Amino acid sequence: MFQLDDKFLEEVGLAQLPPDQKQAFLEQVYSSLEDRVGVRLSEGLTEAQLEEFEGIIDRKIEKVDAWLAAYAPQYAEDQLFQRIQQGTGLAGDDPAVRSEFAATKWLEINRPNYRDVVAQVMNELKAEIGQSREAILESGQQPQQPPMA
Length: 149
Fold this sequence. Notes:
By secondary structure, the protein is mostly helical. Helix 3 runs antiparallel to helix 6.
């Protein structure tokens, strides 16, 4: 999908951001992206769906396991599960792997357009950053004030 890294900074015209500020900026972008995607994906969902998904993304293992038993009882054989497991390097019975799989599968079932939503929000965010590029760079080049004693 996308990576928030030096290539991303280059794409939005911020490759020359001071090195000590790059990571903080990328973390801020990730947080904003996560918030905006969450709001957009929640539109049109019932309260029950929101609670169900919240339990899954909060890695409440009893909620994850109950959802898997109901909707993906053969999850260990699913290629998506196997890719997640390989990508994390964790054992298949690890709660983090099951939780990640359940969250992704839940989105595929309940919000099949979630990848499009993420891409759309990312493009909107890139445009906003691009429009603010000069101000971001100027604030990044200001000398840091020493802490007050």
